[in-house]
Input
Amino acid sequence: MTSIAGEQPEILFERRGAAGIVTLNRPGALNAVTHGMVRALAATLAAWADDPAVGVVVITAAGGRAFSAGGDIRALHDLGRAGRQAEALAFWRDEYALNAFIKRYPKPYVALIDGIVMGGGVGVSIHGSHRVAGEKFVFAMPEVGIGFFPDVGATFLLPRLPGEIGTYLALTGGRIGSADAIATGIATHQVPSARFAAVLDALCGAQPPDAVLAAFAAAAFAAPAFAAPAFAAPQGNSPVTARRVAIGRMFAGARVDAMLDRLDREARAGGPDAAWAQATATTLRGKSPTSLKIALAQMRRGPHWSFSECMKAEFRIVSRIVYGHDFYEGIRAVIIDKDNRPSWRPALLADVDDAEVARHFDPIDEELVLP
Output
């Protein structure tokens, strides 16, 4: 991987004690993951997997605002608009292979996550063996809002969350904090971000990662600072998990339009979930109708597939999305022009052909090959 003269590399690698340390290093771009970063990380992880001196891999990020806000979607948009879809697909092919490698990595893989973690950032962190959430942790998969779909392993991850929480997150792009992340299993530990440097130092020693992280998490919850709402015990500050029953009622089934009908009825009923239901229905109606149906199909198929099967399905989907309309329109509306007024095609759920949605999952000539 190269960098412009005088600039820091986009991703940093360091050997310290027993640890191999990865730092995402594009803070000005919220550590968005580029193709060069994907390739460099894959190569380094492969080398460390075979190095007996490396006992644990730790991935962290520079800047403080975001662990990683996703992939470099503006670059992918520009490639597609220029008719260079094959180059864009090369990024996703390598990225998805990296996600699968992390999922089956033979050594402890610890992600220290503070700030935003979305899209491509999820793919290089959440599939690791240990996921540590700081107090600014914010997880989301907002892809349906840009005419895309929850990828980087979301087909496997989200359907395995409790109840229909994964379906809710996939379709709404909703955000969850550290307590909900612990309650759902997205994160394995909570530690104050001010202690991340100490955690990293401890992970470089001889003590097993499980023991290190358990000690820091236990100390965090014993400290008075954790009486604050932002770091209450998981069950005390888990708004999405606390609404699990309502989410289960609203997001059951295999039809997005039926979910909207239930949300509308709940809003009209005027009960304790009425305001939430109305806001959620409004959110859904702003998303790409095609993306909503694809995402729901992922949620219903994913529980029956292995991780590798999920990644192969996602590559089939993106191989078709990249030649469509909504992805480019979504990026235009949200990222480029920022008018937040996308013109989806089709514009209505009722006009989205269910057979066409199903075809997104059909085999392709150049399937994703995983090592």
Summary: The chain is about 45% helix and 10% strand. The CA atoms of residues 68 and 121 lie 5 Å apart. The radius of gyration is 20 Å.
